[in-house]
Write a structure and sequence with these properties.
0% of the residues lie in helices and 63% in strands. Strands 1-2-3-4-5-6-7-8-9-10 form a ten-stranded antiparallel β-sheet, with no helix packed on it. The radius of gyration is 21 Å and the shape is globular. Strand 5 (89-100) and strand 6 form a beta hairpin. With 207 residues, it is an all-beta fold. The chain has one domain: TonB-dependent receptor, beta-barrel domain (Maltoporin, Chain A), CATH 2.40.170.20. It contains no helices and ten strands.
Length: 207
C-alpha cells in the first residue's frame, strides 16, 4: 500500500457566448490525500480525495458570474476498487465527484458518478458484463432561477465481448438509460425526464 499527499493548481475555462454575459471560468486549488495498492491479494484500491478551493471572477460590465459564492469550497474525489472474486469473476466500483463547468452555457454544476460493474470470463475468448451507473448533475449553486435544477441519470447495462485475437475484438451491449428530475419545485417533471433503450454493436481493430 502507498499513501500520498498532493497539491494541484488549475484553471477551468468556459468561452463566453456573444449573446450572453454569463460564463463560469474559475481557478482552483486542491489538497489531495491518496491511497493506492493491494490491502489483500484479491483487492486493488486507487483513491484520492480532498477539498477543492474555487476562485470565480468578479462581475464586470461585460461579464457576469452566475453564482453568489465566488470562493466556494467543494469536495473532490475519485477512485476505484477492483475485487478479483475468482479467476473468472471481477467486480469493480468507481466514483468521481467534482465541480465542473456549465453544460447549459451558464451555471456551473457539481458532477457525480458512481459505477458498479461485474465481469465474468465465460471462456478464454468470451466475456459477460453487467453494469449499473448513477450520474448526478447539481446546478443549485447557481443564482439563475431558470437554471435551478438537479438531474439524475440511471444506467443499467449488459453485454458480451469476444476477443478473436490480440488485434481484433467484437462486442454487443444493451443499456437502459433513465433521466430523472431531482428538484421538488418543478411543476411538470416529465419535461425533465426521459427513458431510452440503447443497443450497441462494436468491432475493434488494434495494431
Amino acid at each position: 500500500m502507498a499513501v500520498s499527499l498532493g497539491y494541484r493548481y488549475g484553471h477551468q475555462y468556459q468561452q463566453q457566448f456573444a449573446f450572453s454575459p454569463y460564463s463560469s471560468s474559475s481557478d482552483y486549488q486542491r489538497m489531495l490525500a491518496g491511497l493506492e495498492g493491494k490491502p489483500w491479494r484479491w483487492l486493488e484500491v486507487e483513491i484520492q480525495v480532498g477539498p477543492d478551493f474555487r476562485n470565480y471572477p468578479e462581475n464586470s460590465a461585460t461579464h457576469l458570474t452566475p453564482i453568489n459564492d465566488l470562493h466556494p469550497v467543494k469536495f473532490y474525489g475519485e477512485g476505484s476498487l477492483t475485487a478479483t472474486i475468482t479467476t473468472k469473476d471481477t467486480v469493480t466500483f468507481k466514483f468521481k465527484e467534482w465541480q465542473w463547468l456549465s453544460s447549459l452555457g451558464k451555471v456551473p454544476y457539481y458532477d457525480s458518478t458512481v459505477d458498479l460493474a461485474y465481469h465474468r470470463r465465460l471462456t478464454e475468448k468470451l466475456g459477460f458484463d453487467l453494469d449499473g451507473k448513477l450520474l448526478s448533475a447539481d446546478y443549485t449553486s447557481g443564482n439563475l432561477a431558470a437554471c435551478h435544477r438537479k438531474d439524475l441519470d440511471y444506467n443499467i447495462g449488459t453485454g458480451l465481448g469476444y476477443i478473436l485475437n490480440p488485434h481484433v475484438s467484437f462486442s454487443l451491449a444493451y443499456t437502459l438509460d433513465l433521466g430523472r428530475n431531482n428538484v421538488d419545485s418543478v411543476v411538470n417533471e416529465s419535461t425533465r425526464a426521459f427513458s431510452r433503450n440503447l443497443i450497441a454493436i462494436g468491432a475493434l481493430m488494434s495494431f
